[in-house]
Design brief:
Rossmann fold; nine-stranded mixed β-sheet; two-stranded antiparallel ribbon; 10 helices; 11 strands
């Protein structure tokens, strides 16, 4: 793939008018946005499909990569009276290992299952405080009849092949990012749970808080195998995720976490918020907007919100609300079910640490090897993709895809121009076969035929010329 330099993307990233020379500030993760307002189900379905495609494209997952065998290892199981916990690792990418713990109820099953990403807690998936306990929620869910997989974010606990700062200019040019890798890990985590013989594959949920909440709703948005989602303390109109692992390049150009999470509809969604963080207004602002979308789809009972009087957390009160939500939708419990949390002991760290006292498996790759292998896989992935998929992926990468209305989440429609240049005047016509590498369009004019970079010869116009017009 050729390396493009984006010289000008005006009126899309900037809120001001190019003609007047006035520029509003860039959108930032801490800006406050209006709630999305959607009143037409057909237009919302189109918008939701566009946003799901955006998530995948900006994560480098469009087209979707091949899924090689996971080759999972489940070992060192420790059994209690009503549940067991084991160590797990498997290859989410060749030579790159996803690590975590598998909690399992007593009995043969089959059981519903929960994928449980953690947030930016100091101890990651092993965090166990009054504010957040990842082992605590896994143990209680297992006692209640759920298989639970808790796994590491990149660079946390046992996942030390890459730092939590992975990424850079070269990686971004190939669609490789920390956030994209973590979304891929989550998808592969569902693959792992789905393949277990004691798991009901149609009954898989996901829950996490903070950065784990972002992982939860992004995964649920693009993977319909997630039947129920409970992202905690993250669906906000005035904080969109403060880490690289929550922000794929270009994901939120004209949208917010609220709209992204609403794409889960009509599958059940629990919105847990707190008085002491950026979700403090959820009951008044974010929840009504999401519920309106669920109502459009005739599913208002499938979304629920509550607010906990606490700082940023996934505490006992929040967890108990999640237990009841999962029981209702994955176990057929009544709507007023309660699942009080029982006391628990996470156990000694050596019983949970995957690579405690053992080296990485043979074939584990270094960061340089992983990046090289990933780029080679991306070349094959793009080479095998259809021209339509390439076109859509490129347009999402440029922030230039024809998007259905944002419903109040982003700036109004305006004139837009994209200019791509490359420092090599002998550049081939386009890095992506069949696509022009110099594009220009204006709302007030018909699209101009692109010309070959460095020459004056026009390229043949694309067949679906209307694809370049502003809607």
């Amino acid at each position: 793939m050729r390396h493009f330099v984006l010289l000008s993307l005006t009126g899309l990233l900037l809120g001001g008018s190019v003609q007047s020379g006035q520029q509003a500030p860039y959108r930032t993760l801490n800006d406050t946005f209006e709630p999305p307002r959607h009143t037409d189900v057909t237009r919302w379905n189109a918008r939701a499909a566009h946003l799901r495609e955006r998530i995948l494209a900006t994560a480098g997952l469009m087209p979707m990569p091949d899924r090689p065998p996971l080759q999972p290892r489940i070992f060192s199981q420790v059994s209690q009276a009503d549940y067991s916990v084991a160590k797990v690792y498997f290859e989410s990418l060749p030579g790159f290992y996803l690590t975590g713990n598998l909690y399992r109820p007593a009995g043969d099953g089959p059981f519903p299952a929960i994928l449980s990403p953690h947030g930016h807690w100091p101890y990651g998936r092993l965090e166990n405080t009054s504010s957040a306990s990842v082992p605590g929620r896994a143990i209680n869910l297992a006692r209640q009849g759920f298989v639970v997989f808790t796994y590491d974010m990149v660079g946390y606990v046992d996942s030390q092949q890459l730092p939590h700062t992975f990424g850079g200019r070269r990686e971004n040019l190939w669609g490789l990012s920390l956030a994209g890798l973590q979304l891929w890990n989550a998808i592969r985590g569902v693959d792992f749970l789905e393949a277990l013989p004691y798991v009901r594959p149609e009954a898989i949920g996901a829950t996490g808080a903070s950065g784990g909440g972002t992982q939860t709703f992004l995964l649920a948005a693009v993977d319909e195998r997630i039947a129920v989602a409970a992202p905690v303390n993250m669906i906000s109109l005035h904080m969109q995720g403060g880490c690289l692992c929550e922000n794929t390049p270009g994901l939120r150009l004209d949208t917010t976490n609220v709209e992204l999470a609403a794409t889960i509809a009509p599958r059940p969604l629990l919105m847990v918020s707190a008085t002491g963080d950026w979700t403090k207004n959820t009951l008044e602002q974010e929840y009504p907007a999401v519920r309106a979308i669920y109502s459009l789809l005739n599913a208002p009972d499938r979304v629920h919100a509550l607010r906990v009087d606490a700082e940023h957390n996934y505490n006992r009160e929040s967890r108990e609300a999640m237990y009841a939500w999962m029981a209702r939708w994955l176990q057929g419990a009544p709507a007023d079910v309660r699942r009080p949390e029982r006391s628990f002991s996470p156990g000694p760290l050596p019983e949970l640490l995957v690579f405690h006292g053992r080296p990485l498996p043979p074939g584990a790759v270094t960061p340089a090897e992983l990046t090289h292998n990933w780029i080679e896989a991306a070349k094959r992935q793009l080479g095998a993709a259809s021209p339509h998929i390439k076109l859509q992926a490129l347009r999402h990468a440029l922030g230039f895809a024809d998007a259905p209305p944002a419903g109040g989440a982003g700036p109004a429609k305006r004139n837009r121009t994209v200019l791509l240049t490359h420092p090599d005047p002998d550049l081939e016509p386009c890095a992506v076969r069949g696509l022009p590498c110099c594009l220009s369009r204006s709302r007030r004019s018909t699209p101009r035929l692109p010309r070959r970079c460095g020459t004056s010869r026009p390229i043949t116009a694309p067949r679906r010329h209307s694809a370049w017009r502003t809607s």
